[in-house]
């Protein structure tokens, strides 16, 4: 419960601040050019430091890293809520990202090392998967309520009670198994290269959204990221105690999960963005009403993760949950390609969101569990960090890539149709039609991305069902089946 609460706090933060951003911008006098840094400062610190945070959790112990991460996140949230100018706000957001990068992998790796019984593990990861997928939508509801009825500052202050309860619970209740620490010296070159490489990658996609793909700084960031991350892989293959042991990502099942999860998140983040704009700008919904409109997706996520995924995970192979799950989500996304200005919420958006939630919840649950199953205890933190990294990078790519596709489709539609619009009201109608055309064009790409994610899950992930004697996978990448014993003893 305490781990779930902490994870909810981190996931909430990704969307709750977006709803409050216009009010905060006005209060603090943040310029339009600088407002993106409220989101970007967090994304860069969080995405860039995740691997380092995972390694620290392996070194210090997950419980200690978890409690320190919660305390730091609470302090950073208090600073953000009390911000008096843009510099203080940007600093607080970056600090939230730093402690979030310690907290998120510590939370997932605690689950990995504490729950080894197949049925207990299924329940724990069912709840975790539901939060990982649906927490963003909960953030839209909570952010809308706090901004509309209280003040934008409460979108930060709300983290403090979450953190205090989770930290106290973790300190007194959680018992981390002994002997799972990795006390090897820190791989400093690996830390520097991975942090700079991931920061360059996330910033490249974030900048592409505002400055365009051909912008010299955007291109420079992508080139720098490729060089830094390639150098990181070379260094990791040669040092004695690597930050990211390559055995973690070259194992067939984990590699397939990191890839398919990252792709699914690309589709999900783009969808949150477009549906929020569609409901507020095209349909005229208030922030609170927009948040509630996402409730069917949350209900679907919880049902898919805690009911379907949890009940079937001990009976069928993970890929038979992940592949069909992503395909059901793709079907929900496919329905949304029929969006029009006058589309009915009950007839189109409701069934689409239910299918999306059910599919994603069903797929996320076994993915989260299998990503850390069979990994050596000393690598649990860094394996968990890779799950978060694939989600964070996927979110950055999804927002930038799908937003660019939508913007170019909108511009093209308006250019083709605006000449025939005589009156002002007709011109406004063309602009709204152009926006919807942009959203549906991007959603078609999201459908394709989810189908590819399903294909990767079905072909790469070949582990047997949890609780069976072995999990097979070509961990060395050389086609030889490694047998990873899955412990089936109560935690």
From TrEMBL:
One function term, GO molecular function aspect: transmembrane transporter activity
Xref: InterPro entries: EmrB-like, MFS, MFS_dom, MFS_trans_sf, Sugar_transporter_CS
Membrane disposition: Multi-pass membrane protein
Major facilitator superfamily (MFS) profile domain span: 1-465
Main location: membrane
Keywords assigned by UniProt, alphabetized: Antibiotic resistance, Cell membrane, Membrane, Transmembrane, Transmembrane helix, Transport
Compartments, record wording: Cell membrane
One BP annotation, GO: response to antibiotic
GO cellular component: plasma membrane
Record field: transmembrane: 34-53, 65-83, 95-115, 127-146, 152-174, 186-205, 217-235, 256-279, 291-308, 320-339, 345-368, 442-461
Record flagged with keyword Transport: yes
UniProt keyword annotation of Chloroplast present: no
PANTHER family: BLR6921 PROTEIN, MAJOR FACILITATOR SUPERFAMILY MULTIDRUG TRANSPORTER MFSC
The name this protein goes by in its record: Putative Puromycin resistance protein pur8
Lineage: Bacteria, Bacillati, Actinomycetota, Actinomycetes, Kitasatosporales
